[in-house]
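The protein record passed on for reference:
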Amino acid sequence: MKTIYIVKNIHNKDVDTDVLDIINKNDGSFYIFNNKELEKKIKLWNKYFRFIIPHYAIKSNPYIPLINTLAKNNFSFDCASTHEINVIKDQNICNDRIIYANPIKTNEEVEILKQMKEKPLTVFDNVSQLKKMEKYDIDISYLIRLFVNTTDASCPFDDKYGAQPGDIKEILNYKSKNKLSFKGFSFHVGSGNKNIDSYLNAMKKVEEGIQIATEYGETTEIINIGGGLDYKNPNLNELSKLYYKYSLKYKIFAEPGRFFSEASFILKVVIVEKKIIDDWILYYIDDSTYHSFSCMIYDHLDYQKGNKGKKSKVYGKTCDGTDVIFSEIYLPELEVDDILVFPNMGAYTMCSASDFNGFLVPKVIDL
């Protein structure tokens, strides 16, 4: 009989019996989409942030059944590219429920944007991008993305994005023959940021931006608090109070991704080989850091290593010597064809996977 071992991280619960039933009845590696878990996260969001209009960041996981569940719950969507916009439009969701949140657009994307009859709300952080709208003769409504400190985030932006006060003035002072309609401000404190001061300081930046906009005769209608907020953040209640105060005067948008996608997916992988070298056990699984486990590298996903069991390493299935899932983890002694189960594998996993070495991304089974 195959052994099923659940690899725990700090936040997951035990896997329920319905999930174990699917694992036992289906061969190979695959994801399990748990819509019940997604519904729980929707309820959690509404508990704290019912006054915020959520725009799900589909970059975290563009799985269509997940998107459709959110759409049925009146969610809007954050898209990083015209391709993602088309993914949403293919679900018969109108562009007025989309934020085109990537501040930098290529010429090719702007050309596609021009062809859209209904333009989505768009984000910029420099005047060059507005000039590009004029070059392609596009009328558009926009938010200015502000520079905020993201050093406390697990995935900081550093200086990649964000307008400073001088940039805000340059953008608002830009005169165009096109209708470029300023609507408000946007920011992103960085993924995994749990420091309440980061959010407070970001709102101070917003207030500074609103003052500058007022000086230029512009009215701020929208504050987009961006992404980075997840269901594990210990400050949900404090943040709810903070943003509610602003919601009395402005429309508040957000771009949560991980909040909804992470816990909605479980990954099952199979041990395909085993070696014993000295006091180490080496396991090889049918997945890799080029596929589902890219999140270990780029998204800093971590699991409890423990100190019980056998000292082990877990390798991915590609030919790359650096394809290491765990360089050291304590596991019970397992055998070939035994199963490892990883909860909380819905965020930045399948969406960032490649086909390196000709290996495909695991399929998804709906619970």
